[in-house]
Amino acid sequence: MAGEDSAGDESDVGLYDADIAPERQRELLTDGEIPVAVYGLGKMGLPLAGVYAETTGNVTGVDIDPDVVDRINDGESHVIGEPGLDDLVAEQVDAGQLEATTDGPEAAANARIHVIIVPTLLDDDDDPNLATVESVVDDIAAGLAPGDLVIAESTLPPTSCRDVIQPHLEQESGLDGDEFGLAFCPERTSSGRALEDIRGAYPKVVGGIDSESTRAAAVVYDELSSNEVHPVSDATTAEAVKVFEGVYRDVNIGLANELGRLADELGISVREAIGTANDLPMCQLHDPGPGVGGHCIPFYPHFLLSQAEEPMDLTRTARRLNDEMPAVTVGRLERELEATGDDLADASVVVLGITYRPGVEETRASPAIGVIDALQEAGADVAGVDPLVDPADYGARAVDIDDLTAESFDAAVVVTPHAEFESIPWADLEPMVVVDGRDAVDLSGTPHRRYTLGGTADGRPPRDDGGADAIAADERSLTADGGTDERLTETGGTLENPGADDV
Ligand SMILES: NC(=O)C1=CN([C@@H]2O[C@H](COP(=O)(O)OP(=O)(O)OC[C@H]3O[C@@H](n4cnc5c(N)ncnc54)[C@H](O)[C@@H]3O)[C@@H](O)[C@H]2O)C=CC1
Ligand SMILES: CC(=O)N[C@@H]1[C@@H](OP(=O)(O)OP(=O)(O)OC[C@H]2O[C@@H](n3ccc(=O)[nH]c3=O)[C@H](O)[C@@H]2O)O[C@H](C(=O)O)[C@@H](O)[C@@H]1O
């Protein structure tokens, strides 16, 4: 019988198809009798391994980065900005309940539950790249035994468990598909609150390649999470749940960004209007901003767009709109500088915030990268400030936050408002144009010309002068020299209808 050794006793038991009473399965799991391997010890994997360790007492983490492994074995967390993680890692390693290794196959041979939480990225053609996942699957297959349970937590294109991972495991391990369990159990977790989320902020979705896989995964997460376990029909449904959550967010943000662009011509704060519309439970518009970053939300729509036969125009358009926001943000800066008689090509601009979200050391698809590129393309001199990463690695001259008062910039663009930016002495900085992408800065009482993308939550339009004057100045400056705004012609737009191609 799968799940038990030949003697039929409980030693070296697996959960899948185990001929053991469910209550006893839970006891074996929480007594550390069912060893767990977690593959990927990054921003999500290390917190997950820590919660598995505190629940089961018997976890081996696997990572290809020897520095990551060494630090964990020294009881340290390399992940920053996760409340409680430093202590959890130290405690679990000290208790001998968590260890780390770079040897995936060895960990697989000693584990009975295998958890995949490595990146699922895109290639240059925006097609999903599962190479990392498949390399972990190879490691698992090398040690897979009858009765084992494989759990994928990395977000995957729907059908991946059924069409990629299961066949791969069968082929590489020599086992039949009905000898081991496979389930997709998505990470509903945000950086900065990972432990809180993993321990049970939301129901845990589990979807197995067969009903026994779903059952076994539900046993695991019933113990791991304080929230309910939500079994769904199969692994593909669970994969779709996770991707749909991300697509919903990307489309919603795309709508918020499209509405936010109306603020100038309406002379209102769209943020105030959105905040008020959201009084209604049936209306939950997201926030306008300079773009959508991270290796999740900008990526997940492509997990469908790359494989769907349906056109998916709405998802595709929203993705394009969000990708355009860094250029739109720089276009607004260009217009504000023109209104003050300055030319972006001759301007010195400081970009505040390079990572994709405050407090998170992740720059994949960060809007700041698009902003820096657009500024450089326009000929501006570009500096950058970020407490977590080096702006020089992203094409901007690195400036320390404490040195801002020693410099003189024509403009600043607030892309990602790290908490450290609250200490910026705006009143002491040389007067400049400040484009605030996140409605994060209060410039009242300072000499700066403010432009808040989408307006401010407290009801002020993007510009203090209400906007009409600046657009009028814009039209005057553009028609005075008879010139046309090449940016507008690029998009086929006109001043009356900038960005006509965007529609
Ligand atoms: N970051 C987030 O907010 C969330 C991420 N996810 C999912 O979790 C996945 C992982 O995300 P993060 O932990 O943020 O990524 P990360 O980039 O912070 O960490 C990935 C870790 O995996 C390791 N790794 C790479 N290849 C490996 C291999 N072959 N074997 C073992 N380890 C390997 C890397 O060395 C790194 O330590 C994401 O791609 C996504 O699908 C899900 C929910 C939230
Ligand atoms: C549906 C959902 O809320 N997913 C969350 C999301 O977290 P993630 O860390 O990617 O950050 P995020 O808050 O979605 O922001 C992504 C990007 O979008 C931008 N953003 C976000 C919300 C908004 O209203 N406007 C906006 O412009 C952010 O600035 C950021 O650049 O993606 C995670 C994931 O799936 O990996 C997921 O676990 C998280 O719960």
UniProtKB/TrEMBL annotation:
Residues 350-443 form the UDP-glucose/GDP-mannose dehydrogenase C-terminal domain. Residues 473-489 have a biased composition (Basic and acidic residues). One of its GO terms (molecular function) is NAD binding. Residues 446-503 are annotated as: Disordered. Keywords: NAD, Oxidoreductase, Plasmid. InterPro entries: 6-PGluconate_DH-like_C_sf (IPR008927), NAD(P)-bd_dom_sf (IPR036291), UDP-Glc/GDP-Man (IPR017476), UDP-Glc/GDP-Man_DH_C (IPR014027), UDP-Glc/GDP-Man_DH_C_sf (IPR036220), UDP-Glc/GDP-Man_DH_dimer (IPR014026), UDP-Glc/GDP-Man_DH_N (IPR001732), UDP_ManNAc/GlcNAc_DH (IPR028359). GO terms for biological process: polysaccharide biosynthetic process. It comes from the Archaea. It holds the Pfam family UDPG_MGDP_dh_C. It catalyses: UDP-N-acetyl-alpha-D-mannosamine + 2 NAD(+) + H2O = UDP-N-acetyl-alpha-D-mannosaminouronate + 2 NADH + 3 H(+). Gene3D superfamilies: NAD(P)-binding Rossmann-like Domain. Its EC number is 1.1.1.336. Belongs to the UDP-glucose/GDP-mannose dehydrogenase family. PANTHER family: UDP-N-ACETYL-D-MANNOSAMINE DEHYDROGENASE (PTHR43491). NCBIfam families: NDP-sugDHase. This is UDP-N-acetyl-D-mannosamine dehydrogenase.
